[in-house]
Amino acid sequence: MNEFDSGSASGTGAGGPWEPGAGGRWEAGSAGVLLLPSGRTVRGRGLRRPLPPGPSPSYAVHLLGRRPPEVPWESRWLRWPDFWLPSNRAEAREVFTDAWERAAGERVEFACGGGRGRTGTALACLAVLDGVPAARAVEFVRGNYDAHAVETPWQKRYVQQFSG
What's the predicted TM-score (pTM) here? Predict the structure, then answer.
């Protein structure tokens, strides 16, 4: 399995086959799921690990320095080198806003190689869009998603300067 394998070549997660157009949201408390103050749920994960148990995403944002492999659900690639920042910040804002809007009724997932740095940074930006003050968004994600999320000082600064 390489850095970008989803852990399932057949398009099925541990919870069964992916169903086109399947709606619904993530269950709060499920593996990697961040509950935002508005009640929206978003899942973060590392692509180097297998899919968590449960339903597959209905929409995924892949935060990678190179094109990810195809997945059987709708996805978008945001070019983002490991340990750095999004290559196109205006595009990142559009992607984050779209994902935040979709999270009101869809299973939205953010994923990078390890699921901490880039994914944590993106989740912190979603928290800002959801009303968490930018100065507290990293703390919010570290407390509710992964204690090691947002790995570099420049990722933390990016979140602190992100406005909703």
Answer: 0.85
Q: How many domains would you assign to the chain? A: 1
Residue 79: how many CB atoms within 10 A of its CB? 15
What's 65's domain CATH number?
Answer: 3.90.190.10
Dihedral sign of CA atoms 86, 90, 93, 97 in order:
negative
4 close to 67: Cβ distance less than 8 angstroms: no
pLDDT class of 101 with cuts at 50, 70, 90: very high
45 belongs to a structural domain: yes
Tokens of 142: 């570290």
Contact 63, 114 (CB under 8 A): no
The amino acid that residue 13 corresponds to is G
In the chain, the amino acid numbered 105 is G
Query: How far is 80 from 78, CA to CA, in rounded Å?
Result: 6
